[in-house]
Inverse folding.
């Protein structure tokens, strides 16, 4: 059985002073203080934390994902998929997850024309259809193949 890992991160403002992790970066709530980031990956099925990590405040989500995926491999997670928010969406991240053989669900940034076109062209072709039921998740879905980027 595949384990789905939900992974997300956030950051915290810090007044701690001279701490290596605390750096100026893109803060979710910018009050002028340096920040540090922390992230958690947990098993969606049993809601158990699998790993926690902290990293410097200047590192953004999009560039942290590859490091986390490599750690997941190092921890020995094999039959896993990842559930990620739009902060991790990039061509390089998608290519790396494909290269590692991980399945994933990732939010797309914004309402890109690509997404809009795919949704409208498939509307009505999967909703409430038994063969599109994503068993255990309470939703219906469909895999659509197409070019994500011009260079694909």
């Amino acid at each position: 059985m595949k384990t789905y890992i939900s992974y997300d991160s956030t950051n915290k403002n810090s007044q701690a002073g001279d701490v290596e992790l605390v750096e100026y970066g893109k803060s979710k709530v910018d009050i002028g203080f340096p920040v540090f980031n922390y992230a958690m990956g947990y098993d969606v099925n049993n809601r158990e934390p699998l790993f926690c990590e902290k990293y410097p405040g200047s590192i953004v989500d999009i560039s942290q994902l590859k490091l986390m995926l490599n750690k997941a491999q190092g921890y020995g997670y094999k039959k896993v998929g990842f559930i990620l928010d739009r902060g991790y969406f990039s061509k390089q991240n998608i290519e790396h997850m494909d290269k590692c053989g991980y399945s994933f669900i990732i939010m797309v940034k914004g309402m890109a024309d690509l997404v809009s076109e795919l949704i409208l062209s498939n509307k009505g072709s999967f909703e409430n259809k038994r063969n599109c039921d994503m068993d255990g998740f309470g939703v219906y879905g469909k895999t659509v193949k197409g070019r994500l980027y011009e260079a694909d």
The chain has a mean pLDDT of 84. The chain has two domains: 3-109, 111-152. The two ends are 31 Å apart (CA to CA). The first strand starts at residue 3 and ends at 13.
